[in-house]
Amino acid sequence: MAKLLFVMTGTAYWTLKDGTRHATGYWAEEFTAPYKALTEAGHEIAVATPRGVVPTVDMMSLRPEMAGSAQIALDLEAIIRSAEVLRRPIQLADARLEDYDAVYLPGGHGPMEDLCIDADAGRLLTTALASGKPLAIVCHAPAAMLSTRIHGKSPFAGYQVTAFTNEEEEAVGLLKRARWTVENELVEMGVDFTKGEMWKPYTVVDRNLFTGQNPASASVMAERLLKVL
Description:
Layout: E1 3-7, E2 13-15, E3 21-23, H1 28-40, E4 44-49, H2 64-67, H3 70-82, E5 90-91, E6 102-105, H4 119-131, E7 135-138, E8 160-161, H5 166-171, H6 182-189, E9 192-193, E10 203-206, E11 209-212, H7 217-228
Parallel strand pairs: 1-4, 1-6, 4-5, 6-7, 7-11, 8-9
Antiparallel strand pairs: 2-3, 10-11
Helix pairs in contact: 1-3, 1-7
């Protein structure tokens, strides 16, 4: 069986344009859907965060109206409670790609605060992309690709990529409040950005890079990973 590294945000807030802090973290579905599918298939998961901080779930993602129903929200909470790896993450600085068969990054707005500028994230993503091992990134987590830039250039330039779109950011009321958006920054960095319908599952595969547009894409991402592991 394979061993996967989940690289997750270590922050509980996202700084907006006006300097205020928007409560966030990781988005529940984007962790739980792949975690459940992969562990049930017998694969092993490890979690890494900046400085080994225990990741914070975005409480918005556990609201019944956001999760889909009260029962789904309860199911998400149960998976999070049962996932011991969330409570003992390793430090991202100590993560070595050779110890893992694949890398996965769930989103939430958190990566726009820390992983986007984290040198250890940049090192790991650059190494993972070059390795040929599956590298899967969902929703706002493609912001972590920005940390791979050296003198403005990134190894992800030219890759076909998707991520949380400006339209979706506007729909949640945060487009005008954001200092920047994942879509805009990735396009400026030189990726070939594509998008599907708002809130519908949409994933893109380019060589060993797997990206998903939004929370609904996390389950599809898990299926794609299971096929290649």
